[in-house]
């Protein structure tokens, strides 16, 4: 402690609500002295943060360094180094691992059980989030972010609001990289459930351009989605492929049943976008599955008038002698069939999709030169 005629300067280590802290205080002792300054530095581990802000545990883990400045008469200014922490946004399929540099700053104001974080600015090398957050009893109540960039090229606005025991999320904007979302929701049920947790969530999206796998983009995306844990309560998607073809996806539930329907006038585009199969070009596709809400889904997939491009297995198919025959297909037609781009009139299969498995039966692949069952 240093005391001068116009001020007292205090530097100390203490416990604030059981949290180790470093204090740097300046207290004016007369009119015309220096402005009052109160700066606090904290290091929070998971246990300390969970006690102070229990509702942030699903989003934040690891040690964080926090600096609080209440030098003026207004709100507290807070900055935190999140480099050693892990950040998770489960519904977006996005995370930042420990060791990746990140900082967050905001102005904090408290009123009873409500904490408002204004001028919220999360910043990393390839990601940023700007907006405001409201916490009630330490748990996220609502958030409105005017600009969200989780991957390079993202440019969307996001609002999140607590709704009962879950969250309602609204996304709108120009561009969004959907690959992390696709990877999460096309994984097995256990992986997707672990990532999203058991809370109910509804997502509404209106995005001009959506980036998927294999350089595929969809435009004019409209999406409505609701789920609780691994149970999808509803899904409705409409979009346009880069070829101009319409894409429609719906997943409906009711009376203990569920149904999944997918249609597209550009089968290759949607399969590449979802990273399901990259060698298909063009064609139409229809997928229809139904089943009990708690059991496997059964149905069929049917595609017409498409090409298979640069598929290594086709070259092997035409050059290999099948069981029960003495000649390969190349030998039968007395030519080396060009398999770099092969047309098929129809591809069909019955499907059974359950937890952790996919069964195909009675499949047909028919083309002018190549076909199989």
Main attributes of the structure:
373 residues; mainly beta; 58% strand; three-stranded antiparallel β-sheet
Point out poorly predicted stretches.
188-195
The total count of strands amounts to 26
How much of the sequence lies in strands comes to over 45%
Helical residue percent? 10-25%
Secondary-structure-derived class:
mainly beta
Please provide a written account of the structure.
Residues 188-195 have low confidence and may be disordered. The radius of gyration is 28 Å and the shape is elongated. The longest helix is centred in the middle third of the chain and has 8 residues, at 189-196. The strands form two sheets. The protein has a 23-stranded mixed sheet that branches. Strands 5-8-9 form a three-stranded antiparallel sheet, with no helix packed on it. A hairpin with a 4-residue loop joins β25 and β26 (371-372). The protein has 373 residues and is mainly beta. It has a domain at 182-373. The protein has helices at 46-52, 179-185, 189-196, 267-273, 312-319, 329-333; strands at 2-3, 7-16, 19-28, 37-44, 60-61, 64-69, 76-81, 86-89, 94-96, 102-111, 114-124, 128-136, 139-149, 155-163, 166-177, 200-211, 217-228, 231-241, 246-254, 257-264, 280-281, 284-292, 297-309, 341-354, 357-366, 371-372.
